[in-house]
Amino acid sequence: MRENVLWSLIVVFVPFSLVSIGGGPSIFAGIQHQSVEVYHWVTAREFVDLFAIARAAPGPGSMLVTLLGWKVAGWTGAIVATLALFIPSSLLCYGVTKMWNHYRGRHWHTALESGLAPIGAGLILAGVFAVFRIAGAGILSWAVAGVAAAILAWRPTLNPLILLAGGAAAFAIWHGMVPL
Amino acid sequence: MHPTRAPVPLVSLFLVFFRVGLFSFGGGLSGWIYREVVTLRGWMSDDDFFSGLALSQILPGANVTNLSVYIGQRLRGPVGSVCALTGLVIGPFFAVIALATAYAQIAAMPWIQDAMTGAAAAAIGLLLVVALKGAYSASRRLVPFLILMATFVAVGLLQWPLVPVALGLAPVSIAFAWWKASSDA
């Protein structure tokens, strides 16, 4: 029975690993469908909670699957689900990266690299907006992000933990004084 | 890879990604990685990092796990990839389960959620610095800058799907870089 559950985790998450183009957000809807409606690992309500926890915790948002595995089959489930989601895409990425670095120095490789760099930078900039949109961020979020960015531009080697603590304090104090 | 430079110790590689994984709230992970790998340690160049980042986003998988595989491979080969990826994921693995265990208690303390939102917002500031850094280095030439802006507008503002946009702009951008390199040579 337990083996069946672990096997289901692998069967569900390995394909998601290989189609998660653009990262975690592209597969969350599919994961929800499988784990709530198809396999009944969690209820819809539990899924939303787990999603919120994975977003609040450090690390990639796709650690959501770690929680699903943990919920279904404890520590073993957590490990199996995490490996099932991260290993296939990482192996593929490793293969591509190895080829990519093998041809380093060739003329076409230099062109590819300097051609891809502005796209990577544009995607990061877009990512900043996307994160804020998903979080439904208010003016205070933008202010904290702007101040943090300005401080880091001024002192690039400053430990970011200080900024995170500052942001956390700003929010806690703000909401303490201005009840929602 | 860098014949003139001593290889990056595997332990350092692991520890850098371990720290990034454990302390990165709210999706600022690429910003942290840039800071650790490029700004503080000079392990790779801007172009190297940003092109790796574009690859990481185009390929399936979480962007940061792909980026850690890329950087690990670049610096130390297969063992490097394993060290970077393991370092990145092991902290959050335990953190996320710990948080789920304590979720009921935490949900009863709204200020903790406020604090976490605040920390996440500051983390976005980190990402913003990297984005502006990339924009600055692209803006020395017109075409790369236009490519960057087009990517941002299409994916960020218009919310078009990332992969078709990246694959559509890549040939233009690469053709320009090819032409530029040929005419400079």
UniProtKB/TrEMBL annotation, chain A:
Belongs to the chromate ion transporter (CHR) (TC 2.A.51) family. The keyword Membrane applies. It is a multi-pass membrane protein. Coiled coil: none annotated. The chain crosses the membrane at residues 7-31, 72-96, 108-128, 134-154, 161-178. Pfam families: Chromate_transp (PF02417). It comes from Microvirga arabica. It is found in: Cell membrane. Keywords: Cell membrane, Membrane, Transmembrane, Transmembrane helix. This is Chromate transporter. The keyword Transmembrane applies. The lineage of its organism: Bacteria, Pseudomonadati, Pseudomonadota, Alphaproteobacteria, Hyphomicrobiales. InterPro entries: CHR_Transporter, Chromate_transpt.
From TrEMBL, chain B:
InterPro entries: CHR_Transporter, Chromate_transpt. The chain crosses the membrane at residues 12-34, 49-70, 82-103, 115-135, 142-162. The keyword Secreted does not apply. Keywords: Cell membrane, Membrane, Transmembrane, Transmembrane helix. The keyword Transmembrane helix applies. It is found in: Cell membrane. It holds the Pfam family Chromate_transp. It is a multi-pass membrane protein. It comes from the Bacteria. Belongs to the chromate ion transporter (CHR) (TC 2.A.51) family. This is Chromate transporter. It comes from Microvirga arabica.
